[in-house]
Amino acid sequence: MTNPFFDEWDTSFGVPPFDRITEAHYLPAFDQAFKEHNLEIEAIANNQAEPTFENTFEALERAGGLLDKVGGVFYNLTSSHTNDELQSIQMNLAPRMAAHRGDLYNNQNLFKRVKVVAGSIQGLGLDADQVQLVEDTLTSFVRAGAALGDKAREQVQTLDKELAGLRTRFDQNNLKDVNDF
Predict the structure, then answer these.
(1) Distance of alpha carbon 88 from alpha carbon 92, whole angstroms
(2) Max Cα–Cα distance, the chain, nearest Å
(3) Are 165 and 87 within 8 A, CB to CB?
(4) Which pLDDT score is estimated for 81?
(5) CA distances from residue 60 to 41, 65, 102, 112 in whole angstroms, order as listed
(6) Structure letter (DSSP) for residue 51
(7) Residues 129-136: contacts with CB within 8 Å, 24+ apart?
(8) How far apart are CA 153 and CA 181, in angstroms?
(9) pLDDT digits over 28-77, tens only?
(10) Please, are residues 40 and 64 in contact by the beta-carbon 8 Å criterion?
(11) Alpha-carbon distance 155 to 158, whole Å?
(12) Distance between CA atoms of residues 104 and 123, nearest Å
């Protein structure tokens, strides 16, 4: 079976080829997207060069292309044109997405790089948007628990996975209630 998420979309304006995408394509595409994103994150985190805005923040912004592609289609459909199978996939995916996000934001090598750049932000000649990106990224790492000890980070990640499942269940129940109304 070919998966449209692994192909370049030659549609008008790069619109997803919805006529070729089935529910069976999502989990394999997400699996591959997680693998690719993890490799990209590890390359950034383990880069031996001095941390810079370009090799840390710009690299983070460019990482996860397939994850963005699959997630963009999937989450738009689950919030607007869903079905039981998509909702089942969404429930399966929620803790995995939370774990993936938690692993990214709790990667200590990556967090060190982010802190180095954030600590020297004044001397980097960044524009206002770049400064905002650095500040927002640092805040995301801290809020995800990156500055905590090992045990506390594990607790935060466990809670995040549980919350992801609860949030998804709530969203699905809310959508069902709206549709029933």
Answers:
(1) 6
(2) 57
(3) no
(4) 86
(5) 7, 10, 15, 14
(6) P
(7) 130/53, 130/57, 133/57, 133/61, 134/53, 134/57
(8) 41
(9) 999 999 999 999 999 999 999 999 999 999 999 999 999 999 999 999 99
(10) yes
(11) 5
(12) 27
Q: What does DSSP assign to residue 14?
A: G
Nearest of 50, 62, 23 to residue 113 by alpha carbon: 50
Task: Dig out the tokens for 167 from the structure.
Answer: 């949030």
Please state the pTM of the whole predicted model. 0.88
> What type of residue is 97?
M
d(CA 41, CA 166): 27
Q: What single letter denotes the amino acid at residue 140?
A: S
State the pLDDT at residue 1. 66
DSSP per position, 148-172: S-HHHHHHHHHHHHHHHHHHHHHHH
- Other beta carbons within 10 angstroms of residue 160's beta carbon come to 19
Are 57 and 134 in contact, with CB atoms under 8 Å apart?
yes
Quick one: average pLDDT of 107-119? 96
**How is residue 180 annotated by DSSP?**
H
Q: What pLDDT does 16 receive?
A: 95
How many Cβ atoms are within 10 Å of 101's Cβ, its own excluded? 16
Residue 63: how many CB atoms within 10 A of its CB?
18
The residue type of 31 is D
